[in-house]
Design brief:
2 domains; 17 strands; UDP-galactose 4-epimerase, domain 1; globular; Rossmann fold; 41% helix; alpha/beta
C-alpha cells in the first residue's frame, strides 16, 4: 500500500511511520524538513510547506508512481498536523481523487467538558468551551464529516488522548524527562487538584497498532475512533509509577487548578479543558473494527523504556530546564500562599 503521512516524525506519527514500514507500506512523508527524519532512506520524502498548495500539487504530480487522471494516487493520506477546519478543507481540495482514504487526527480533548459521565465513547458529544485547541479540533471534524456527506470524501477521524513515547515523558509543562530527575533529587512534583481524577496514558506504539489497522479498512470510512490504553490510573498513581520506575518514592504536592491559572496560565487551558476531569475512554469501537487490537504497554513498562532511552541519551535529562523552572515557581508560590493562610 502507498501511504502519505503529513507530519510523520512526531510523537504519535513516528510510531505509525515505523509500523507501516514494517508492514511493507511505501511511505511518503510530507513535512517542512525542520525535524530530523529518523527514517531517511526508508521513506519517500516530500519536503515542502503543506500550506503552499500549488507547490504541493506540483510535487505530487511529479512523483514517479502509478497515477490516475487526477495525478498521484494513494491508498491512504493521513494528516497528523491538521489544527482546524481550514486545514481539512485544503486537504479535501488537494486530495480529492488522489486517495482511497483520508485519516485526520483530532483529539479526545474535544469530548464534552465538563463530562456528564466519566466513561466516554465515540458517541459522547463534542463540546469544550474551555480550550481553543479543542474547539478547533471540533471544527476540523465538522469539516471532515461535511466533506464525507456532501462529496463522498473518504474520511476517517482519529482522536488520540495523552500519548507519549520512549523519548518524551509526560509532564505538567509539556513532555520532558525532568520529572525523573526531580524524583531522584527528592524535589517535589506538582499534581493538579487532589490527584484523584482518572486518566489513561498511551504509549505511541500501542496507538500506532490501532491506527494502522484502520488504514485500508472499509469499516473505518465515515467513522471516528479514539485509540488509548485500557489502563486507568489516577494522576497520583501516574506520578507514583514514575517514581517506581526510578526506584524512589516521589514527593507530590497537590495544587488547585485555579491557583495554577494565576501563577502559570500557560498550563491552565490544558487542565481546565482536559486533564482535571476524570476521563475513561472506552475502546470497544476500535477493537470491534481492528481485529485483535489491544494496547500492550503498561505505563510502568513505558516509563522503564523512557529510562532506558535516557541511559543511552543522557543529554535528554538536562533538557526541559524552562519547564522545571515553572514547576519550582509554582511550588514556591503555593508554599507562600499556604504560609500566609496559616
Amino acid at each position: 500500500m502507498k501511504s502519505l503521512l503529513i507530519g510523520g516524525t512526531g510523537i504519535i506519527s513516528s510510531a505509525v511511520t515505523e509500523l507501516l514500514l514494517a508492514q511493507g507500506h511505501t511511505v511518503f512523508l510530507l513535512n517542512r524538513g525542520q525535524r530530523r527524519n529518523e527514517f531517511s532512506g526508508r521513506t519517500r520524502d516530500i519536503t515542502i510547506d503543506k500550506n503552499d498548495r500549488a507547490a504541493l500539487k506540483s510535487a505530487l504530480d511529479r512523483l514517479d508512481a502509478p497515477k490516475t487522471k487526477s495525478g498521484m494516487q494513494f491508498d491512504a493520506v493521513a494528516n497528523f498536523i491538521a489544527y482546524d477546519a481550514r486545514d481539512v478543507e485544503l486537504d479535501v481540495e488537494t486530495f480529492s481523487g488522489r486517495t482511497s482514504q483520508y485519516l485526520v487526527i483530532s483529539s479526545a480533548s474535544a469530548y464534552q467538558k465538563p463530562p456528564n459521565h466519566y466513561r466516554v465513547t465515540e458517541s459522547t458529544p463534542l463540546c469544550n468551551p474551555f480550550w481553543e485547541y479543542s474547539r478547533n479540533k471540533i471544527a476540523l471534524e465538522e469539516a471532515a464529516i461535511r466533506a464525507y456527506r456532501e462529496k463522498g470524501f473518504p474520511v476517517t477521524i482519529v482522536r488520540p488522548s495523552y500519548t507519549y513515547s520512549k523519548f518524551f515523558v509526560p509532564g505538567l509543562f509539556g513532555l520532558n524527562f525532568r520529572h525523573f530527575e526531580r524524583i531522584k533529587q527528592g524535589k517535589p512534583l506538582v499534581v493538579h487538584g487532589d490527584g484523584q481524577s482518572l486518566w489513561q496514558m498511551t504509549f505511541n506504539e500501542d496507538f500506532a497498532r490501532g491506527f494502522a489497522g484502520l488504514i485500508g479498512n472499509p469499516r473505518a470510512l465515515g467513522e471516528s475512533f479514539h485509540i488509548t490504553s485500557d489502563e486507568v490510573l489516577t494522576w497520583d498513581q501516574i506520578f507514583k509509577t514514575m517514581g517506581r520506575a526510578v526506584g524512589v518514592e516521589p514527593k507530590l504536592v497537590h495544587v488547585p487548578v485555579e491557583f495554577i491559572r494565576r501563577v502559570e496560565p500557560s498550563a491552565y487551558d490544558g487542565l481546565k479543558g482536559d486533564k482535571m476531569y476524570s476521563l475513561v475512554l472506552d475502546n470497544s469501537k476500535i477493537k470491534s473494527v481492528v481485529t485483535g487490537y489491544q494496547a500492550k504497554v503498561s505505563f510502568y513498562e513505558g516509563m522503564c523504556r523512557c529510562l532506558a532511552y535516557a541511559a543511552e541519551h543522557p543529554e535528554v535529562l538536562t533538557a526541559g530546564a524552562e519547564a522545571d523552572a515553572k514547576v519550582d515557581k509554582l511550588l514556591a508560590a503555593w508554599e507562600r500562599a499556604m504560609g500566609s493562610a496559616s
